[in-house]
Amino acid sequence: MAIERRIVFLLGLVLSGPVLAFPWYASGEGFRGAELMSPEERKAHAARLQTMRNFDECRTYMQGHSLELEKRAQQKRVSLPPVKGDPCEVMRTMGRF
């Protein structure tokens, strides 16, 4: 039964469109390092993820983004939480590329 619910949930995400597929990114909050970004940066980051054309492009972008967040965290002497999830993998699983 749990697998069926998961399939229905994933199917709902796929059919609902790209923005709803990443509600935590679309809101500009709730993702790793969001507190180190301005509202404009969070919005631009969410929009940029939606424009990715392939997995490698996504991974390259996310690696650069992660390095920038790490640098900001060091400058502010704060620790980032561990990485949870991978939007590039999610998009690949959803068939986006």
Please describe what this structure looks like.
The chain is mainly alpha-helical and 97 residues long. It has helices at residues 2-16, 18-21, 23-26, 39-50, 55-76, 87-93.
Count of beta strands: 0
Helix content estimate:
55-70%
Any idea what the radius of gyration is?
A: 15 Å
Structural class: mainly alpha
> What's the overall geometry?
globular
Number of helices: 6
Distance between the termini: 29 Å
Biggest beta-sheet profile: none
Helix and strand element order: HHHHHH
Mean pLDDT: 81
What percentage of amino acids are in beta strands?
A: under 5%
Low-confidence stretches: 15-20
Task: Supply the key terms.
single chain; 97 residues; mainly alpha
In short:
The protein is mostly helical and 97 residues long. It contains 6 helices and no strands.
Write the layout of secondary structure elements.
Elements (H helix, E strand, L loop, with lengths): L1 H15 L1 H4 L1 H4 L12 H12 L4 H22 L10 H7 L4
Helix pairs in contact: 5-6
